[in-house]
Amino acid sequence: MREDILEFLMNRRSIRSFQKKDVDNELLKKLIYVANHAPNSMNREPWKFIIIRDEKTKEELSKLHKGASHLLLAPVNIAVVGEPDVSPDTWMVDVVNATMYFVLSAYAVGLGVGWVAAYENETAKKILGIPKEKVLVTLLSLGYPDPEYKPKPKTVKSPEDVILYEKWS
Ligand SMILES: Cc1cc2nc3c(=O)[nH]c(=O)nc-3n(C[C@H](O)[C@H](O)[C@H](O)COP(=O)(O)O)c2cc1C
C-alpha cells in the first residue's frame, strides 16, 4: 500500500502565486509526455497543450475574468485543448484525464498549478488562435510555488456523502 501517494494526492492544492523562476522546456515536455500516458478511449490522445510564455498573451488571458489574474503571476501558462474531431464521443473525458496526469506530474516535480475556468471561452480562443473545431478546455498557471502562498484551508465531502450502493437510491 503506497500511503505516501494517497497523501500526495490529498495534499495537492491549487497554487495561485509563483516564484519568478522559469520552468525548463525539457521538463515541460517530460510532463506532457507523462500526460500522453493518461487513459483515453482507443488511445487516440485527442488533446494539445499550448505552452505560453509571452507576457502580452499572459496579460490578455489574465483579464478574462476575476479568477484568471494568477495567469500573469506564473512564468508559464498552459492552454489545454480537446479535439472532438479526433475522438468525437469521448474527447471530453480523455482530455480531462490528460490534464490531471499533467497537473499531478507537475506537483511530483515540485511545480504548482492554478486553474482558470475558460471552457470554450471565445476571447481566449481568439487570443490563442485555436481553430473552431477544437475545444479550449482550461487554462493553467504553472510555476514554482511562492513559498509564502498559503491556500485557504478546505474541507471535503465524506465518502458517505458521495457513495451509493448498487443503485441510485
Ligand atoms: C474546471 C476548473 C475550473 C477552475 N477555475 C478556476 C478559476 O477560474 N480561478 C481559480 O482561481 N481557480 C479555479 N479552479 C480551481 C478551484 O477553485 C479549486 O480546484 C478548488 O477550489 C479546490 O481547491 P484545491 O484545488 O486547492 O484543492 C478551477 C478548477 C477547475 C477544476
Automatic annotation (TrEMBL):
The chain crosses the membrane at residues 98-118. Residues 10-64, 74-144 form the Nitroreductase domain. Keywords: Membrane, Oxidoreductase, Transmembrane, Transmembrane helix. GO terms for molecular function: oxidoreductase activity. Pfam families: Nitroreductase. The keyword Oxidoreductase applies. Belongs to the nitroreductase family. This is NADH-quinone oxidoreductase subunit E.
